Amino acid sequence: KTSNMLSLLLYTASISVLTACVGANMETVVGVAGRKVTLPCRSRAMNQAGVAVCWGRGEPSLFTCHNKLLATDGAQVTSRTSYRYTLSSRVSIGDVSLSIYNVRVSDSGFYHCRIQIPGPFNDQTHTVHLIIIN
Q1: Nearest partner of 90 among 53, 42, 28, 50, judged by Cα
Q2: HSE toward the beta carbon, residue 1, CA cutoff 13 A
Q3: 115 three-state secondary structure
Q4: 91 in Cβ contact with 46 (< 8 Å)
Q5: Strand blocks (E) in the chain
Q6: Contact 132, 33 (CB under 8 A)
Q7: pTM of the entire structure?
Q8: 3-state secondary structure at position 43
Q9: Residue 8 has pLDDT above 80, yes or no
Q10: Dist CA 31 CA 44 (whole Å)
């Protein structure tokens, strides 16, 4: 068990170094299988009219939400692939964090939050690396 924790710690440290190299809009979240995890995403742009948000799985694409899990038009959820995915109740103050209930080890991987702001090249993207342990 100690070697598993040490391996996880070293892995998390290496991801932290990768995060520093890739950019400031990437975070790592560690969760426990069977529980809820929250993937953070915040933006002041949520106060603007016409701003939509989507959460996707994997690396973000340049112009769209890749492997979409959940989407909102800024006021309400417009699509969701599973009821295990919910959006923060604080969207109006810029918190568009994604909660995943009853997480599984297979949920581990990269996720991205895309804040779709009207106009060309205005979107904001945040990447989260999720690690689930038993």
Answers
A1: 42
A2: 1
A3: strand
A4: yes
A5: 26-32, 37-39, 52-57, 68-72, 77-80, 85-87, 98-100, 109-116, 124-133
A6: yes
A7: 0.78
A8: coil
A9: no
A10: 27
Alpha carbon distance 47, 39 (integer Å)? 21
The average confidence (pLDDT) of the chain is 82
User: Hunting for tokens 């997480």 — which residue is that?
Assistant: 103
Alpha-helix residue ranges (DSSP H) falling in 1-134: 2-22
The backbone torsions φ and ψ at residue 17, rounded to the nearest 5 degrees and listed phi first, read: -65, -45
pLDDT tens per residue, range 66-112: 899 999 887 789 999 999 999 887 777 788 999 999 999 999 999 99
Contact 126, 113 (CB under 8 A): yes
Cα 16 from chain centre: 16
Q: What is the largest CA-CA distance in the chain?
A: 51
Structure tokens at 55: 């959460």
